[in-house]
Design a protein that fits this description.
Distance between the termini: 33 Å
Helix content: 55-70%
Strand content: under 5%
Largest sheet: none
Number of domains: 2
Length: 145
């Protein structure tokens, strides 16, 4: 099943709710009306990961939404997937996706951003490329790749 942009938003709010995050009235309304409200986080995670790995999400915008949603889960077991997607996005020159993957890795305890970096933004494309390359280099060295 391929999720739409709106469904990613719904899924993210459902995931946040499961993680105890408070929501605005708008977000609570979306959750209440969502087809995902009765799905658990692991089901949503599997649905999104399988969709990404099957290549269902062709546009950078769709993949950014998928990575953002998975970031909300905060599952450290997704590290290998995040690393693989980061490598693939970098190899294909998809600079716009890198920031969300770096954020996702950071969210599971990985030091994905350079220590000396004073800010983080999606539009800092060159810095995101640099940090992605450095993270992958260090990650490969740690695992003997």
């Amino acid at each position: 099943m391929k999720l739409t942009e709106n469904q990613f938003e719904e899924a993210a709010y459902v995931i946040e709710k499961a993680n105890g995050v408070s929501h605005s009235e708008y977000e609570r309304k979306i959750i209440a009306e969502s087809e995902f409200k009765n799905r658990n986080t692991s089901e949503l995670e599997t649905l999104i990961v399988d969709g990404l790995n099957a290549g269902l999400y062709k546009t950078e915008s769709e993949r950014i939404s998928a990575y953002w949603c998975l970031y909300k889960i905060g599952n450290p077991k997704l590290k290998e997937d995040f690393v693989n997607w980061l490598r693939m996005e970098l190899k294909k020159g998809h600079k716009n996706t890198l920031f969300q993957l770096l954020i996702a890795l950071d969210g599971i305890g990985e030091k994905a951003f350079a220590k000396e970096r004073t800010g983080r933004a999606a539009d800092e494309l060159d810095l995101n490329v640099r940090d992605a390359m450095e993270y992958l280099k260090n990650n490969s060295a740690q695992h003997g790749v």
